[in-house]
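Reminder: ligand-aware prediction takes two inputs, not one.
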Amino acid sequence: MKSKKTFVKLFMGINTCLYFMTLFFNIGCVESQKIASKSGVLLWAENCQRCHNTPSPTSFSAEQWETIGMHMQSRALLTENEKNKIVAFLQSASN
Ligand code: HEC
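Here is what comes back for the chain with heme C:
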């Protein structure tokens, strides 16, 4: 009898846990949609000064930004979409 109660408690505990996890992941989705809507210039301003000064778009050519973008994508752990937006911004404002 006692073990059955423990089982029910455990089961309810897991359910509560799943409920909060679902809530958490839903919030996570809303958050990543917000991030996905950020512009290249905003992502550049927010991310590229975490490790060094924000590089000016004019400091490299459009082709160089392509390569740098790939390299910094792995350094800064950016998604493909974020990297593309940042590179597009840097290229549009580069020489
Ligand atoms: C996690 C840290 C980190 C973040 C975030 C980061 N970088 Fe870097 N960056 C580095 C490091 C470290 C180097 C030095 C080269 C190397 O070892 O990769 C570097 C070098 C560079 C260079 C070459 C500098 C030179 O004068 O040769 C450029 C340009 C650059 N980063 C641009 C960017 C851009 C644009 C972003 C934003 C998308 C960015 N970085 C975000 C770490 C970072």
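The radius of gyration is 22 Å. Residues 72 and 78 are 8 Å apart (CA to CA). We will return to this case in the review session.
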